[in-house]
Amino acid sequence: MSFAYQVTARDGAARRGRLNTAHGIIDTPAFMPVGTAATVKGMTIEEIEATGSQIILGNTYHLMLRPGAERIARLGGLHEFMAWPLPILTDSGGYQVMSLSDLREIAEDGVNFRSHLDGARLTLTPERAVEIQHLLDADISMVLDECTPFPASEEVAAESMRRSLRWAARCRKAFEPRPGYGLFGIVQGGVYPALRRESALGLIDIGFEGYAVGGLAVGEGQDIMFQVLEDTLPALPQDRPRYLMGVGKPADILGAVRRGVDMFDCVLPTRSGRTGQAFTRHGTLNMRNARHREDKTPMDTACPCPTCAKHSRAYIHHLFKANEMLGPILLTRHNLHYYQILMAELRAAIEGGSLGDYAEKFAAEQAPPAP
Which of 119, 164, 287, 359 could form a disulfide bond with 145, CB atoms 3.0-4.6 angstroms apart? Predict the structure, then answer.
């Protein structure tokens, strides 16, 4: 199957589309559960598929350290290794490496860093990042970029963005084209519109199968994030998928979809599931809160997931208070179902030309009750 993206419906700037990859079709807007170390924590492959997930994200940094990209390749690639038959996107490892501020140094050739596992000295270059993702057999690979810190001066953001552009060109040259596989560029530039447009145009000149917006959801706030998207997305090709990295909360996703984003990933639904936070139509719930201890109702009465179909708030509350591992498992399963239901509803609203009405209803339902 060729790697191709088709927009099938529009509602304002929002797009409904289908992305063809080597391991299947992805309906967009799409949310990708994060499978950091070849596992979405607490979930079996069958349970992930049952949520409606069509693609997951694997973490290049963690997999290159353990068990190693070459080992995974010898074992048949990441799909076979973890028994996930559908598409996989892998990040480049850049975000994790850049976050090791005390353990890394950035040079033109790449990033020199120490493993957080054993302190071993390692180097990640654009060419090696692409090679690792090829060994993993990722349907969608990401270029190695420098994740600009926030806040950053315009001078610092410009220097970082231009280095990322040079690395992107090297990644493009290193990528081996195969039917059904694609490489995405990553737009950087901090909160500066001119830098974001320069980055977008530079990446378009290099040429990629898709384009991501990076360097957001790092503390700038929702209003600034949306403004950066409004400044950036119109410069990107209409016939290529757009991926907002590391986002986010349901309201963030809805707002980004309305501005033209097609793909998302975030640890929030799984991490929150492990810490007792549930996402519902009426906002978030802290399942450790004592008010749930004798509540026989499900977390979300409209949710069709197995957790809500079978278990009460009282039971979920008990599991967390007793530190039983089943609590995080059941809540993670619910949260991922909630996110995929949200994406399905967004796709339907775009197809029906009713995204504005959907957004109004969403905001009303999520609003806290009047005192």
Answer: 164
Considering the domain boundaries, does residue 145 fall inside one?
Answer: yes
The whole domain housing 286 covers 273-366
Please report, for residues 111, 163, 166, the alpha-carbon distance to residue 108 in angstroms, rounded to integers and kept in the order given: 8, 7, 9
C-alpha–C-alpha distance, residues 70 and 136, integer Å: 8
What does the pLDDT look like over 145-201, one tens digit per residue? 998 889 999 999 999 999 999 999 999 999 999 999 999 999 999 999 999 999 999
* 32 residue type, one letter: M
Where does a domain end: 265, 292, 318?
A: 265
What CATH number is associated with residue 257?
3.20.20.105
Same domain, 185 and 311: no
Judge if 86 and 127 occupy the same domain.
yes
Q: What is the dihedral of CA 247, 250, 255, 257, to 10 degrees?
A: 70
Cis omega before residue 248 (within 30°)?
yes
Tens-place pLDDT, residues 242-275: 999 999 999 999 999 999 999 999 999 999 999 9
**DSSP H or E run through 238:** none
| CA pair distance 32, 23, nearest whole angstrom | 15
At residue 182, φ and ψ (nearest 5 deg) are -140, 160
- The SS3 assignment for 89 reads strand
Residue type at 58 in one-letter notation: G
Which helix (H) or strand (E) covers residue 49, if one does? helix 45-50
What are the residue numbers of the active site? 91, 265
Same domain, 354 and 334: yes
Whether the predicted model's global pTM rises above the 0.85 cut: yes
Quick one: 134 and 242 in the same domain? Answer: yes
Phi, psi of 320 (to 5 degrees): -70, -40
**Is 247 in the same domain as 289?**
no
